[in-house]
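Propose amino acids for all 242 sites.
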């Protein structure tokens, strides 16, 4: 699985290093390691693999990863932010979430860009949307854009997925907990669609995610380069079940 070209070289800023240190510390605490364990990005990914294999089921991993999300934020933040978001139209919140994602997650997933949500990812709202606030005030139908306008983010080559080489880390430590956090706690539906051939990942804000048993992202075998898969020989990782 994954691209045939070598992994890109990433230039980390002081903010990237701080965000990585903080996130790795919370992740380490969840798996019972010393907070702030080193190792840089590869060390963080190793801890993510530990989290993925710590429990006897995919559900246990997802619940633990969701606890990491909650520990990263101040108490009550999801509820307060959800209330704040409810003051604005859905398209406005989704579009700004996409903008923030490209800026805030580059240290974790690598470069990304804003795009329109794919036509094969149904959004919760099928109505045309304004391109900006001014056009929303003008309320002219001729100025409206198709649904999903700038509500997507395309991660060009997910750094976590490539570094871990593990579909379970992608699905159970990242995708499913992130979707649940935004959809259930923030009130902003989010569907994430990984591409295991290119390591791209499409974020679609405003699209309620499918249940795991209907999600095509789970229709994958273990990656050959996954350390866990290498130890399983011909067996399928139970963490790829829903």
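Proposal:
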């Amino acid at each position: 699985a994954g691209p045939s070209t070598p992994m890109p070289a990433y230039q980390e800023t002081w903010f990237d290093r701080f965000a990585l240190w903080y996130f790795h510390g919370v992740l380490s605490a969840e798996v019972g390691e010393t907070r702030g364990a080193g190792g840089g990005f590869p060390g963080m990914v190793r801890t993510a693999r530990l989290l993925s294999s710590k429990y006897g089921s995919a559900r246990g991993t997802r619940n633990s990863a969701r606890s990491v999300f909650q520990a990263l934020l101040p108490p009550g933040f999801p509820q307060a932010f959800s209330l704040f978001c409810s003051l604005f139209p859905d398209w406005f919140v989704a579009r700004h979430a996409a903008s923030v994602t490209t800026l805030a997650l580059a240290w974790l997933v690598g470069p990304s860009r804003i795009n329109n949500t794919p036509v094969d990812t149904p959004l919760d709202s099928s109505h045309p949307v304004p391109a900006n606030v001014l056009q929303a005030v003008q309320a002219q139908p001729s100025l409206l854009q198709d649904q999903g306008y700038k509500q997507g983010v395309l991660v060009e080559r997910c750094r976590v997925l490539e570094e871990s080489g593990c579909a379970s880390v992608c699905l159970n430590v990242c995708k499913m907990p992130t979707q649940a956090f935004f959809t259930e706690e923030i009130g902003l539906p989010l569907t994430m669609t990984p591409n295991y051939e290119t390591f791209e990942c499409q974020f679609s804000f405003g699209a309620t995610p499918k249940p795991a048993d209907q999600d095509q992202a789970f229709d994958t075998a273990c990656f050959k380069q996954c350390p866990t898969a290498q130890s399983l020989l011909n067996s399928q990782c139970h963490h790829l079940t829903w």
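The longest helix spans residues 167-186. The chain has a mean pLDDT of 88.
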